[in-house]
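A favour, since you know our structure tokens better than I do. Could you add the entry underneath, on a fresh line?
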Amino acid sequence: MITTDQIRGPARRARLGQVTAFRARRRGRLDAPGLRPLLPALPEPGPLRDLPEIVTPFVMEARAGTLRAVGQLRSRLLRNERRAIIRIQAESVRVVTQYDVRAEPSPAALARYGEMVGAWRADAEVCRARAVSLTHEANQRLTCYWDAVWLTVQAARAEERRRATEPRRARQRRRHPPGARTPEATGEPAWAEPDAPSYPPFTARPAHWLPGRVTLDATWDDVDAWLLTGGTPAQAPSVHARTPAVARALEILDTQPRRGGPGVPAGDRPRSTAGQGRRAR
């Protein structure tokens, strides 16, 4: 179980530890017999088909622990930055009033607002990067688990196929003892040479198939929406609903035109003529 104090450790690790990977593979080998009916044999040749989603206790444990840790990261960010969020909401009202109600643009006020929003977005992106690292760690654990399940099932199927073909080979050997055969006459290899395996070799687990894959939800794609909803999924607004001040202020901040117009290159912009008369003197 991942607790709050253990979040920073997994977020800093670049790969799984040996103990964690060993436990995941061991759990996969133990669960493989029960999962064998759910793993159909892949067609050869031909494209790999999509295999069904399988939920096991290990998968649920990995998903629940990771999603809980991700939620704790977001709640910790909102708790630590609650004063900054309050200031952003208050400043949003001032920006909207200045630009929409009074129709008097104030670059200084917008610059202060942009500084606060920039600090918030930087902290939110750091939180999102840590959440992504947690999902990567969980997917690495699931990869070790399903690799062990897949290889164990493939080994069991290959062993059954070998045992099914072994009696037929034994009867052939009794009918044709090694001493009565002449490799030169028959053109067949001597019995001392090993027979080629009659069962197909192991097939690796399809890379696209990872039941229980952990991903971040859609709320992590728009961290600015946390200023309004606190990280919960936003509901569709009604037709008569008003635009929140925070959303309108962010729109004003992000849609400011560049100096000289959006289509004028930096080298073709007109220079200031304030000091031309002074230089002419």
